[in-house]
Amino acid sequence: MIKAVIFDMDGVMIDTERQSNLGWQWAAGQKGIELPNWLMDEFKGASPSDSALKFKEYFGDRADFWELRELRSQFVYKLRETEGVPVKKGLFELLDYIKESGLKCAVATSTRRESAYKSLTTIGAYDYLDGIAYGDEIKHSKPAPDIFLKAAGLLDTKPEECVVIEDSINGIKAGHAANMKVVHVPDTIMIKDDIKELCYSIKEDLSQVIDVIKELNN
């Protein structure tokens, strides 16, 4: 029986991963380096410190992760001033269904509290939520299950009673490790078969997750 739905935020609720990728590419260009797509994919869902380690493994001392991250942030903030924070297809249809069905709802995001709160309030999703687990409040980031387990705890719900909605490889691994039903809604990352096997279901947009919940609770 499913009693709660836990969302990742970036790339699931809001269409920010494309903006982030553009920001990373711009920042890398400013420093005269090329940032491969696979490395940007490794950043998704991971904490800044874990991303910095992956960056260091690839670039060594040729570039500074934190400097690039600051440049990327400046680019993204300016981009959002013109584009706003785009909402993913089907988000509010799903949020309304969750609310009307009496299910609990949370967000588990690797983004720090201040930034995540701003995004969730800007798009009008904050008041739908019963709890939020923020990335800067977790010791072990995705792919560790900690952030999803914290979200379930905030909802007073068992892990096996939760559906997790994720777009990233790190997030899928984390949701699976937490013993939750993972629904993958693809964004900018193409996942391989071994990652697909960790998912309960794969859907094109958030509105289709309603059918997954109905199926699980039938």
From TrEMBL:
Its cofactor is Mg(2+). The keyword Magnesium applies. The keyword Metal-binding applies. Keywords: Carbohydrate metabolism, Magnesium, Metal-binding. One of its GO terms (molecular function) is metal ion binding. It comes from the Bacteria. Belongs to the HAD-like hydrolase superfamily. CbbY/CbbZ/Gph/YieH family. This is Haloacid dehalogenase superfamily, subfamily IA, variant 3 with third motif having DD or ED. It comes from Lachnospira pectinoschiza.
